[in-house]
Amino acid sequence: MEGRLRPAEAVSFVLADGPPYANGQIHSASVGSSGPDERRKITRAPSGLTVTALYLVHTQYLSRQLYTELDRVQQDARRLETDRDRLQVEKRAQATPLRVEKLAKEQLQMRTTSPAITQYVRPDGTVIPAVAPVAPAPAPPKPATKPAAAARAAR
To answer: What is the spatial distance between Cα 31 and Cα 46, in angstroms, rounded to a whole number?
Structure first.
């Protein structure tokens, strides 16, 4: 019974590097029986079912790794989208016209423009002299009331 395995004997395969059995090599198996003296090496080609099962396990392992990576990347994407939305809200709150004008006046000591402080420059670089503010024209006098209207008002 040297070439046959008994049910009580343990069989372990030594796998080559890389995908299981992709290189078509014959792998060695050690058969252990009751005593250490009776151990011997046998050469045996793995069956198609064993190769398929090992390949399936390897493929499922890679699939789980990829799914875990996909889930992690999707969580990162959701976190980044939330941060983006929060920052856009903060940006809108910081850029209100009233706040910008207040900061310009307080921190930058800026002031509102008026014709009295504005200088105009010609394309050749010369400054156009400032024009003194024009005083508002006096209101025209009210026209006299018509005598007919005054007579009617007196009656």
So the answer is: 14
In a domain, 25, yes or no: yes
Distance CA 66, CA 44 (A): 34
**How many structural domains compose the chain?**
2
Query: For residue range 25-79, what is the model confidence (pLDDT) as tens digits?
Result: 444 444 444 555 445 555 566 788 888 999 999 999 999 999 999 999 999 999 9
pTM, entire model: 0.38
> What is the spatial distance between Cα 131 and Cα 29, in angstroms, rounded to a whole number?
105
Q: 18 and 64 share a domain?
A: no
One domain, residues 30 and 63: no
4: DSSP letter: S
27 has which bridge partners? Answer: 44
